[in-house]
Amino acid sequence: MLQFPKDFIWGTSTSAYQIEGAWNKDGKGPSVWDAFCTIPGRTHNGESAQVTCDHYHRYKEDIQLMKAMGLKVYRFSISWSRIMPTGRGKINEEGIKFYSDLVDECLANDIEPWAALNHFDLPLALEFELDGWTNPQVQDLFADYAEVCFQRLGDRIKTWITFNEAWVVAMLCYGLGIFAPGKTSNSLPYQAGHNLLLAHAKAYRVYDEKFRPTQKGKIGITNNCDWREPLTDSQADKDAAQRALEFFFGWMTDPIFFGDYPQSMIERVKERLPRFTPEESALIKGSTDFIGLNHYTTFMAEHVSENLKASMPYSNSGIAEDQDVNLSTRPQWEITDMKWPVVPEGLYKMLKWIDERYDRPIIYITENGCAVPDKVENGQVNDTRRINYLEGYISNCHKAMKEGVDVRGYFVWSFLDNFEWTLGYQMRFGLHYIVPETLERIPKASAKWFKKVIEQNGF
Ligand code: PNW
């Protein structure tokens, strides 16, 4: 058993749309996902999260389950359209009350609440009226919404995450068209990314100036990145892997540390990449207290030649072609239900890359986990594959820490099985199994295993 520092944080993560349900209850406005799921063919079997785990009504039961497995930190997200049904203006007091009660229930059970302000679920009104994240006006609307959250919940929430995975919003929502609102383009993702980054910076400044002095919390961003391993030793493939990381993690992280995008993006994306004014650059530079990393998998990266372009993944919008990188897997790699290879040392390499590029930042691994074909047998779910996955990734985190990488915590995705976006309910990422129909929660073997990890580390 590997020993981690006593104050190393062990937690689990969820997101509002994926677990809450109650999509139109108590004054909540629709989000882009509520609408997207009603379009035939957009999600697996036409599934949506109108009910999903019904956490909105069952949160007390869920917090008892967290307590039973020894969790002391819980990372969730706040639904913007539950707090502001049209994304701006009027506040929905019942929405505030839900999160306020949730936070109180956490604290009453010695669980520290960590909240993300946005996890893919933009209020639908802002998509209809303003074209969502492609419109710079949404930057300030996000900062206004963030201010409401700080004001009403910041007396008790001491760790804030502005965005969960801005890269996914830019790429999957506005480029590849597979996440809501389903747009396909090779320029909208860069505009969306730009507005997301500036919205993050503005929310950070609001917290820093108006709330930090009294509330004394911290605020950061969670970016996601898979590792990219060069396919061969050739310089071209090594450059391709590096470029792929810059277009992935660097895109959403370089501006926050350096005030500008990676040079490789500036050179390749050219006029489709918006640029920061000197004022914007100053606003964004230094706008985080820590980096949240969501990491799941690794792919091999190779420099793409013309004749390979046709076989590139994600090639529908032309957006991936900006990188000239082809991705592939290795035959010996175990593959999860998500078709994501299990490569634990990818996390070690990813952490080292971040450590070096951003000069030893504070890192929290805010998501890591896997979907495997879980089944209930004699009332139990023996998800040995998940335990092996988590063990492998956690030990590679430990290895990076021994070499000085400043990782302060680790969160499993996810606390319980939930709505896996476009792929629906077939993907089970949870430490707790959800029985279809009854929504009964069954702790999996991995939940018991994780409890032991927490205990043995004295957290
Ligand atoms: C993350 N991709 O999403 C999210 O934060 C979670 O909501 C989600 O359930 C989890 O990972 C598992 O998918 C991603 O296609 C969705 O690269 C898609 C991608 C990456 C992350």
Q: What features would you describe in this structure?
A:
The model has no long low-confidence stretch (mean pLDDT 97). Helices cover 41% and strands 14% of the residues. The chain has a single domain (9-456), classed as TIM Barrel, CATH 3.20.20.80. The protein is globular and about 55 Å long. Strands 1-2-3-4-5-7-10-11 form an eight-stranded parallel β-barrel, surrounded by five helices. A three-stranded mixed β-sheet has the order 6-8-9. The chain has a two-stranded antiparallel ribbon with strand order 12-13. The protein has helices at 16-19, 32-36, 55-68, 80-83, 93-108, 124-130, 137-153, 166-174, 188-215, 235-258, 263-269, 278-284, 345-357, 384-402, 445-456, and strands spanning 9-13, 73-77, 112-118, 159-164, 218-224, 227-230, 291-294, 298-303, 325-328, 363-367, 407-413, 432-434, 441-443. With 459 residues, the chain is α/β, with parallel strands linked by helices. The site of 4-nitrophenyl beta-D-glucopyranoside (PNW) has 10 residues, from loops. The site of 4-nitrophenyl beta-D-glucopyranoside has 10 residues, from loops.
Write the layout of secondary structure elements.
Elements: E1 9-13, H1 16-19, H2 32-36, H3 55-68, E2 73-77, H4 80-83, H5 93-108, E3 112-118, H6 124-130, H7 137-153, E4 159-164, H8 166-174, H9 188-215, E5 218-224, E6 227-230, H10 235-258, H11 263-269, H12 278-284, E7 291-294, E8 298-303, E9 325-328, H13 345-357, E10 363-367, H14 384-402, E11 407-413, E12 432-434, E13 441-443, H15 445-456
Parallel strand pairs: 1-2, 1-11, 2-3, 3-4, 4-5, 5-7, 6-8, 7-10, 10-11
Antiparallel strand pairs: 8-9, 12-13
Helix pairs in contact: 3-5, 7-9, 8-9, 13-14
